[in-house]
Structures are given as structure tokens and as C-alpha cells.
Amino acid sequence: MIIKNISIENFRSYYGSNSMDVGEGLTLIIGANGDGKTTFFEALEWLFDTVDNKPKVDIKYISKKKIAELMPNESAVVKVSMTYESDRNEKIVEKSFKFTKAPDGSVTTSNFMHCIYIQNGNEKEVCEGDTAKRLFDIDFSVSIRKYCLFKGEQELNIFNKEEAMSYLVETFSKIRDFDPYINFTSKAQKWSQDAADNAMRADRKNSKEAERLRSLIKNELDFIRDKGEELKNSQKEAVNFTTLLDELEKNKESSELLNSTNNRIETLKEKIAKAYNSISENYTFRLLDEMWILMGFEPIAREYGDTVANLDKEQRRMEREYQREQGAKKLAGKMQEEINQGFVPLALNIPDENTMREMLHDEVCKICGTPAPKGSVAYNTMKKHLDDYLASLKDTHDNEDEEEDTLFKHEYIRELANRYTVLHNSMNWLTRLPIIIKTEIEKNRRSHDIADDLQARLEQEEEQKRKILAQTDGLSEEQLVSAFNNISEWWRQKNQAENKSDFLKRQIDEHRKKLEEYQEEYSQISEESLAATYARTSIAMQRIAEAFLAAKIHNKREFLAQLEDTTNNYLERLNRGDFRGQAHIVEKADESAELMLIDTDGTRIYNPNTALKTTMYMSLLFAVAELTTVKHEDDYPLIFDAPTSSFTAAKESDFFGVIGEINKQTIIVTKSFLNENADGSSSIDTKRLKAIKGKKYRVEKKRPFNDKNLATIETRIEPIN
Amino acid sequence: MAIRYNRFDSERFVSLFELWGRKNPSYEKHFEDEVIKRLCDFGKGTNETSDSKAKVLGAGYEVLIMAFFIGLYSNKKLPLNEDLDIKDLGQPIQYWGNIDSKKGRRAYPKLREYMFIALLAKTPEIDWYELDKGRCTPSETVNALIMTMEEYINYGLTVIKDKMDEDETYFINQNAFLNLIQDLTFPKNDTLSPKDDQPEPLD
Asked: In what helix (H) or strand (E) does residue A95 lie, and over which residues does it extend?
């Protein structure tokens, strides 16, 4: 089937009648986002949908602009049609329905039509409904349509579906041709076996032996069947574990990276916690609990010291004055000379007794640092001071019980002085307190800096982790970590399943041999008899059936090998001048398949870039199309919606260049070759596009339009020259 | 013979510090709602754990201590307005800072001694000779000390209230009291406290 023309009328944004001729090679339909590219694709999907006979009419297909334009009770038509050539006949397939606008603005639909018009000489023949459906299914079979329309890059991998390979092989290779022979020989084997059994039963002489052998044969057949089932399961299990390990291999690097990143994240988190734990910033409490609030207390302490010293000094002066005035002659006499000197002497106990004795012994006044040799004035003064002190002690003891007349009855000033003595011990701390606080705050600041630095590194590691996870084909972190942890278990289970499969295969082979022996023995029970002939016929039929089965498998492999070769041809053309590896179709035990890229040494290339992956999948599609064309003796188009969104501009140009040269009808809807203008519109990069062979169209919203009103949207299809 | 009291050898001697410790300084009652209750677990008992994260201080006296030092370092006394209601905490000074049962807190009884020393230094109207001569009573002296204390507290509470009126959450920042005290005790350019752009504490 070759598409000649596509017409779209009032289908969604395709207001009015729009038509385009389609080339035999590449047809490019270029449009920006929202310009109606996907709508074009959906119109074809709607046209090709013949899965059931339901009309598939939906108001959402109707052009809003057309509805807005209609007067009450006025009608119009939604229509998608395609002119195509099949069996050298030109036909038009068309789907349409009528819609009518009611006075209240609502819309009703009617007259759904599915027709095929066949040009027969000058006459036009029309088929409708089921006939049209059947005819279209012949011209463009449903099985082929599966490999025709592709939306985006994700859908291109046709092997994503498990049954895809067997469907492909069954549909497009010739292996189905073997099926009638296999069926016939299997049945013939059964018939001859039944005939042999019946004849044996009639042979009374040998019936006992025949019964024994039949029973043995049945047992062997049962055994082979059961073990065959078991083998299938085992092989499936081995495939599953191989797939898991393949996934792991694909993500091995990621798993290892993730593991080491997780370890680093753990360590960083511990360090951050430690850094934060070392921060003590509850400064309000520390003002009280650690008495930081005394940071400004030093001047007050000094002020207090001065006050107390003055009070003490003045009090002593007053006391002496009082004593003198009271005529305490002894004391006054002692003090008279000193008072006359015009200064208040030190208290008698200052310096203390031991210091005084030491100074007299060393003959030095250690207060002023002057030598005081025996007999000098200084020596004598010190000696007198010590004597006076000793005498005062004696006086105190002597007068303890005597009533003393003093000016001051209480000693609160002394309490003040004592308090100063205690305060004096803290002066050093009070002086250093601002520095202590500053150091603590600095320490906290440094800890913050360390924690911030660690936090930044943690964020980098988390980012790294996100990147790793983003590159792992949708595997979750748990899966990656468990993959890392489970590898040995998976290997064990895979090996176990494979060993079991080998063991079962050997068992089945052995029992097959036994079966053959029993069957041979059975056929020889009564040689020359009819029963023996039937039995030998049965064995022959069984072997023929097995031969056909083997031929079928061989053909399937040949088909896949051919498919692989053709795929690689296309892959080479689509990636000219670029690395491409080699496409390889791997057949799995569960009858599914996987298309993968391998290196020249046969090792798998994991995670190829998306553009390479896309070209690989497209190559397979081209290969399928090429091979099936041979079988169907008729071509069919490939229609893609935005298959190259991951390509660079240069890669796109090369890609479309090659597609343009391939002798294959391909329609590609794309937003490539568009340059964005400053006003939000876009224009065609004609220079790049000129190099591409094929028909080219631009789909575009007609301007002006209201960006909030769908009823103003109209897509136009214009050819690009 | 005249009796000479000595705090170290006479049971009858009661030091001024002890007398002062038995006192309850007063404050203007309006500060209770405006400041004290907003900053501490006032009225909950000192052993109870604060159930409000917004409270930055524990017992009520902690607010008064802060206020006292603000007044002291500002060197500003503000007499209590006699026309207003006056109240006290009902918790004598001798118990202030004794409790350390709260999580992460430490007792600080020694701070009382420094407060007392500050009062001795900053109450010049006391005639100490007259006191030692026995011509005025220790009680009168302690009353004078308490008045100084109340005036410092009164000024400090006014400062705190003004800050809270400007920004209700001002003292939730752990640097707030530190900055305030530091501004009063150090020249502006010799800052101790963390920069404003430092992260908030984690707790």
C-alpha cells in the first residue's frame, strides 16, 4: 500500500478542508508545539482504527472553530480520507460523520460513514461499512498496522511487549507454512499409534507383553511431558535471573557509585551532627548560667574596691582620732608621733609577722626594696613595727575581758572589705571574661562555617546521588542498593536454575532414548504383523513431525538473523560517520526478544545515548518493513510522530537526509528545522531543509488567534518549496 | 563592753548580704503582663519545664536579673511610680539562681554576690560609718540597697518593654540579650556577638 494523498476536514484544529499529497519516499510535516502535528497523527489513527465496528464518533474530534461558525440547525462534516494505491488500484478510504448545532449551542452527531471508493476505469465503485472494513484490512492488514504508526521515541522499541517477537515471526516469516505439516504428521503419528494399539490388543498371544510396553511407553511420555514443563519453568527462571543480572551489569557502575556516595553521605551527616552538637548558642541562658552577664562588671568591681579601701582607711583614721580624743594615752602616745607625721600608718598586722621577721633577718625592706642594715633608721623602724604588733597581740589578750571603748560598734565595713577580698580573687576572671565570650562566639562561628561547608558538600553528594538515580532506567534507590547486595544470591539462583535445566535436559534425553527403545520393542512384538507396521509408521510419523519442528525453529532463526542483518544495514546508514556498535537480537527462553547494541568483541553496550537507541529501533522497523514487503509483495508506509526529539540539529539533518534516500514511504511529523522568532512565532530553516529529499509541509496555526479561545484556532497545511 | 558583731564568730551576727537575700524586690505590676509573662515561665514553678518554645527565660527572677544588669550597665535608675500598683515575685533573692534542675541549665548562685557588690558600690547615700557606729540600722541600709536594685530593674524593664513593643519576637533571637548587654558594656565597634547573618541556633 502506498499513500497518495491525505485529506482532513474539520477534524479538531484542522478547520475546513485540508489536503496534502504524499511522496513515495520521505514526507516531512513540520510544525511547532501546538500547531497541530499530533492532531494530524491522531486523524490517521482514527482513520486506521478498524478494531471493531463501532462508529468511534466523538465530539472532541470536531473543529471548535467550525462549531462556532455554524448557525442554529446548520450542519457540517468531519472527514478524514486517504487516497492509496493497492494491487495497482487507486482507492480512497474515508471516515466521516455529520454534526449539527442545536439552537441552544449544543452539538449532535449523526451519519457515521466508513467507505472505500475504488476507481475502476472511469467508474467509481463504493464499499461501505463492514465491506469497507474488510477491504481495508486486506489492503493494510491489522498485523502490519502494528508496525506502522509510532508516537514519540518511547514506542519505537517493538520488543518492549513480551509477545512481540513471536507475533512478528509468526506474521512475517514463512515459518507458519510448517504448521500444517507438523499438525498432520503429529495426527498421523497418533492415528498409527492407535491403530497399532488396537491391533496389538487383538493379538492375544502378545497382548500381555504389549500391555507392559504400552504402560512403559505411557510412563515415559508422562515423564517427558512433566519434565518438559519443569524444564520450561527452570529456563524461565534462569532467563529472569539473567535479565536481573544484565540490569545489574548495566547499572553496576551506578550501583557502586551509589554505594560509595551513600557512604560519603552517611559520614558527612555524622560530621554535620558533630559540628552542630559542638555549637552552644543559647546565649541568653549562658548570660546567666555562665555569668557572661558580668562581661561589663570589672569597672564596677574596681569602683567597689576603691570605695571599700577609702571606707576602711577613713574608718581607721576616725577610730584613731577618736581614741586620741578620748585620751587613751597609751594608744594615743604610740600613735601621736605617727599622726604628727601627717599620714596614717599601716595597720600593725601589715605586713604580717613572718614577713616582718624575714625582712629584719635579711636586713632589707622588701616593701620599698631598700637595704636596711642593722642599726639603720629603716631597720629600727621595722623592728619597732614588729614590736608594736607583738605588744598589740598581748594587749588584746590582756584586755580581752576589759570593757573597750570604741567609736565603731559594728563591723559592716569589715564585711564589705572581706567581700572585696573574695571579689579580688575573681578579678582576673572578670578581666578575661570578654575575651572568653569572644572566643566562645568565634568557636561557634567556626563550627557553623564547618557545618555549612559540610552541608554544601552533602548537597553536592545528594545531587550526585540524584544524577546517578536519574541515569538508571527508572530503577529505584532500593533496587540499586539491593542489586548491589543481592548479586551473589542472584548468581547462585541463576546457576542453580541453569544447572537444573541442564540436568532436566539430560534426563529428558535419556528418557527419550528409553521411549524410543520401548517403541522399537513394541513395534517388534509381532513382526510382520499389521500391528508392527502401524507401530513403525507411528515412529516414522513422530520423527517427521520432529523434523518439521526443527525446520521451523531453524527458519525462525534464519528470519531473525536476516532481520538483524537488515537492521544493521539501516543502523549503519542512519549513523554514518558516528559510533553505532552493532544491533543484536537476543532470543530468550520465554520466547520474548531483546534488541541490544554490542561491541565488536561481542560485549554488550549498556545505556547507549537516546539518539543511538532511537536509530537502532527505527532501523529494526525499517528492516521489518523491508522483509515483510517481500512476503506481502506490497509495501506499507511508516508514520512517526516526533521520533527525533533527542537528536541534535546536526544529527537530525543527517538522519532525515538518509531517510530521504531510503526507498521507503515514510511520513514523519516533527518540529525540526524550525527557528524561533522573537515574537514567539517560528520560521523554517530553509537552508538546512533544502538538503533533505522528499515532500515537505508546514502545519501552522493561522494568525491572528486568541490564545484563550480554541474556537479561533485553525491549522493550515502549506507545502514548502 | 560594747558588743562587736563578727559574721565569722558570732551566731548573732547577720550579714547585710543575708539580710538583703531575704528581700523581695518590687516592680510595677503592669510589667508582669507586658514583659515577665512573655519572656518566662512565670507562675509555673521553677521545676516545671517550659511548654512554650517562645519563652526565652526560665523563672521570673531571670527577667528581673536581666533588667537589673541593663539598668546597672546603663547607669540609669528609674524610681518606681508610686501611683501605680507594685508587686513582687514572692521569691526572695536568696533563692535566685539556685535551681539547676531544668534540662541544659546550670545553677548560678554566685551571681547574687556580684549583684550585691554592685548595689554596695552604687548606693552612695548609705553612711557606712553611721551604720558601724550603730546610729542607723542594717535594715535601713538594706532597704536603701533594695531601692537601688528596684530602680535599676525598673529602668531595665522599661528598656525590655520598648524593645518588645517594637518587635514582639525580638528576644526570641538568642543573640538579643547578648547584643543588648554588649552594646551597654562595649564600644559599638568592638562587637562580641555573632554577625546578624549568622544562622539561627539549631535548638
From this structure: strand A89-101
**pLDDT value at position A92?**
92
Residue ranges of the domains in chain A? Answer: 2-140+643-653+662-719
pTM score: 0.49
pLDDT score recorded for residue A358 = 87
Q: Is B194 on the interface with A (CB under 8 A)?
A: yes
Nearest to B110 among A291, A304, A402 (CB): A291
Closest approach of chain A CAs to the CA of B83, in angstroms?
Answer: 32
* Span A586-594, average pLDDT: 77
Looking at domain A2-140+643-653+662-719, does it have CATH number 3.40.50.300? yes
Sign of CA dihedral B54, B58, B60, B63: negative
CB B102 within 8 A of CB B191: no
CA of A282 vs chain B CAs: smallest distance (Å):
6
Find the residue in B nearest to A308 (Cα): B121
Q: Model confidence over A391-417: pLDDT tens digits?
A: 877 665 555 555 557 788 888 998 898
**Nearest CA to A230 among A510, A503, A491?**
A503
The answer to whether A179 touches A606, Cβ cutoff 8 Å, is: no
> Is residue A127 predicted with pLDDT exceeding 70?
yes
Nearest CA in chain A to B203: A282
Chain B contact for A404 (CB, 8 A cutoff): yes
Q: Give the pLDDT of residue A404.
A: 59
In angstroms, what CA-CA distances link A481 with A171, A237, A421, A579? Answer: 42, 22, 69, 32
Query: When comparing pLDDT for A498 and B11, which is higher?
Result: A498
Indicate the average pLDDT of chain A: 84
ipTM of the shown complex? 0.87
Please give the biggest Cα pair distance in chain A.
170
Q: Report the candidate in A133, A61, A147 with the shortest Cα–Cα distance to residue A93.
A: A133
Contact A451, A443 (CB under 8 A): no
β-strand A2-11 against A75-86: which pairing, if any?
antiparallel
Cβ contact B4–A410 (<8 Å): yes
* Interface contact A413-B128, CB threshold 8 A: yes
Instruction: Report d(CA B169, CA B165) in Å as an integer.
Output: 9
Q: Choose the closest CB to A318 out of B56, B129, B186.
A: B129
pLDDT, one tens digit for every residue, chain B (203 residues): 334 444 444 445 688 999 999 999 999 999 988 899 888 876 554 444 444 445 788 888 999 999 999 999 999 999 999 899 999 988 899 999 887 656 678 889 999 999 999 999 999 999 999 999 888 899 999 999 999 999 999 999 999 999 999 988 888 888 899 999 999 987 654 555 554 444 444 33
Interchain contact, A288 vs B111, CB within 8 Å:
yes
- The residue-averaged pLDDT of A582-586 equals 87
Indicate the residue of B97, B118, B193 with minimum beta-carbon distance to A300.
B118
Tally the C-alpha atoms within 13 A of residue A685's C-alpha that lie toward its C-beta. Answer: 15
Q: With both helix axes pointing from N to C terminus, report the angle between A252-277 and A207-250 in degrees, rounded to the nearest 10.
A: 50
Find chain A residues with C-beta within 8 A of B5's C-beta. Answer: 410-411
Q: Sheet containing A26-30: which strands, arranged edge to edge?
A: A149-151, A638-641, A666-670, A26-30, A695-701, A715-719
**CB-based contact A9:A675 (threshold 8 Å):** no
Residues 153-192 of B with CB under 8 A from A: 171, 174-178, 181-182, 184-186, 192
Measured between beta carbons, the chain A residues lying within 8 angstroms of B17 are 415, 419
Q: What is the DSSP string of A597-608?
A: EE-TTS-B--S-
Query: With an 8 Å Cβ cutoff, is A322 touching chain B?
Result: no
Q: How far is CA B179 from CA A681, B158, B166, B170, in A?
A: 59, 17, 16, 11
